[in-house]
Specification:
By secondary structure, this protein is mainly alpha-helical. The protein has six helices and no strands.
Length: 132
Amino acid sequence: MNKKESQYLRLKQLNDQIRPEQPLQAIPRPVNGWLKAIRQALGLSLKSVAGVLKISPQGIHQLEKSEAVGSISLRQLEAVAGAMGCQVVYAIVPRKGTLADLASAENDQTLRAVQHSMALEDQAIERPDKHL
């Protein structure tokens, strides 16, 4: 497979992975990180991205490695993404289901805890009809 075919395949795979109708939870982070995956899929060299940011290609390589291990800052991530003509979309989503599902489960736990606490308090209070 030549370089252009490889780039096309990467681009198609990423495009299939980031479909708008797909839930965010279903989009796994590429093993080597988004920056490297997107850069390679777009056919951009380390040198070309580095030139936009006025840093060394080794600097871009380090930022890609930092992103892959989860230690990059959002500011750095946004800068490199911007240099590639992309933007960072930052979100916190539930691991499963929807936020409403998560809130409902959390509310159920809270309700059970309150009911348990009230039951314990009720046991501690001597009821007048108990002595009859």
